Amino acid sequence: MKDLFGKAIYDYQTNNHPEDLITETSISEPDEMSVAYLFRTFMEMPEIEQKALTLSNGRILDVGCGAGSHSLYLQKEKLLEVISIDISAYAVEACRLRGLESVAVIDVMNLQEEKFDTILLLMNGTGIFGKLSKVSDYLQQLKSLLNPGGQILIDSSDIIYMFDEDEDGGKWIPTDSDYYGELTFTLHYKKETETPFDWLYLDYNTLQNAAIANGLKCELIQEGEHFDYLARLSLKS
């Protein structure tokens, strides 16, 4: 991976001539994304993200922290202990420059001997699962990191709306994947192209079924304006 997403974040933070990211998926055309959006304040965030931050408590793990905007709010405004992780070295360095006190280049699947009261996976937090077949592995790992009474706050979207309808009102779903939310994602930045990677959008019912199968309770906290939602997973008592 060239870490173009992280480079864009770092360029913006250091004022190194940042440009828009160009994103495309296996089912969508290229689209521009302003890097400035990743540096948004609490008031600029979608309601789902605001709700997740409001519900956050105790010792917090921010998975895939990106530019660190969620962690910064929790650290500065709620005075909470936040551990922020990302697989991007550039993003992590930008977070340090922004003032995050505890941020590191770590894949959540490699995190061990740590416990948290709140685990955050936001901005389509299910994306890092990559494939439907990997959801259980990730949920078991996240479950192992929870303190008793802890919570996983995760958001995603049901992207069924992106597929065409047939005459009977059904959807034309490609048959080259196990689940319609499995996409291949490609980023372009400053005339470079990132290695394509798997990205997963999960509808709520599929997430709920996976959570139950892995010994977790699943609660729908809030629905957004565009087929998105926030869910809370917790240990079964």
TrEMBL record:
A GO term for molecular function: methyltransferase activity
Domain (Methyltransferase) ranges: 56-160
UniProt xrefs under Gene3D superfamilies: Vaccinia Virus protein VP39 (3.40.50.150)
InterPro entries: Methyltranfer_dom (IPR025714), SAM-dependent_MTases_sf (IPR029063)
Keywords associated with the record: Methyltransferase, Transferase
The keyword Transferase appears for this protein: yes
Protein name as catalogued: SAM-dependent methyltransferase
